[in-house]
């Protein structure tokens, strides 16, 4: 059969579907008379079609579906969670947002690169930021992965992340905050985002 032309197999299917033309039927019969392997294949196809037709009349016993459904494991908890998600879409969206934002903030916390906010009158020496004596820096200073020495005056907040704040006769009009823990960093970032958001809507 493997050496027989493909169109003979197509004619077999046409014959079994009842869609074969007179010419194709004659070619098929002629081939089947000469090829025992195609004759065997045609016989197997006919048996399969006959089985499918006879099986179409089989019906399930009464209450079969309900009995099967009773035996299936209950998916109540999953359905309950899905319903809760559907009833609280804003809360779910807020939780997903906070999760992704926290992941990105943790990633930025673990970045060990030194950085400092750009302010005039600051001296940067390696990873140490210095406010020289007699100088006034107007605005907030944020130093990450470095230290700050204040000998002059800062008219704003000073935040040191993963570093040290050192001052002797310094004058800082705002808050001084040292952040060494990841939770303090997350809280600081969330406050900054909140303040920026409030600044935008005012």
Automatic annotation (TrEMBL):
<keyword id="KW-0812">Transmembrane</keyword>
<comment type="similarity">
    <text>Belongs to the zinc-associated anti-sigma factor (ZAS) superfamily. Anti-sigma-W factor family.</text>
</comment>
<dbReference type="Pfam" id="PF13490">
    <property type="entry name" value="zf-HC2"/>
</dbReference>
<keyword id="KW-1133">Transmembrane helix</keyword>
<keyword id="KW-0472">Membrane</keyword>
<dbReference type="InterPro" id="IPR041916">
    <property type="entry name" value="Anti_sigma_zinc_sf"/>
</dbReference>
<protein>
    <recommendedName>
        <fullName>Anti-sigma-W factor RsiW</fullName>
    </recommendedName>
</protein>
<feature type="domain" description="Putative zinc-finger">
    <location>
        <begin position="6"/>
        <end position="39"/>
    </location>
</feature>
<dbReference type="InterPro" id="IPR027383">
    <property type="entry name" value="Znf_put"/>
</dbReference>
<feature type="transmembrane region" description="Helical">
    <location>
        <begin position="90"/>
        <end position="109"/>
    </location>
</feature>
